[in-house]
Design a protein that fits this description.
With 80 residues, the protein is mainly alpha-helical. It has a domain of 44 residues. It is 31% helix and 5% strand. The protein is built from 2 helices and 2 strands, in the order ββαα. A hairpin with a 4-residue loop joins strand 1 and strand 2. The protein is extended.
Length: 80
């Protein structure tokens, strides 16, 4: 993954005299799931607060991965 610059938005826009609500950005970066999962897993395990900021974000996945995840969700681990 290549590094990118983060944008910081103020909650109050002094020039407009009111709350500042940035427009939602369209996703423009494609990332391999193999690169993404370890980072997200580590952030969750270490309880990084910034991860909570993105919990409502949507990600696009392929139809076949969606089907596998749906099947996996309905499976129950077998007793050993």
């Amino acid at each position: 993954m290549r590094p990118h610059q983060l944008k910081v938005f103020r909650s109050y826009d002094e020039n407009a005299g009111g709350l500042f609500e940035p427009e939602p950005l369209d996703p423009t970066v494609r990332v391999r799931l193999g690169d993404l999962l370890p980072l997200v897993a580590m952030a969750q395990k270490l309880n990084f607060i910034w991860l909570k900021d993105f919990l409502d974000d949507e990600v696009a996945i392929s139809e076949d991965l969606h089907q596998v995840l749906q099947s996996f969700r309905s499976c129950r681990p077998s007793a050993s």
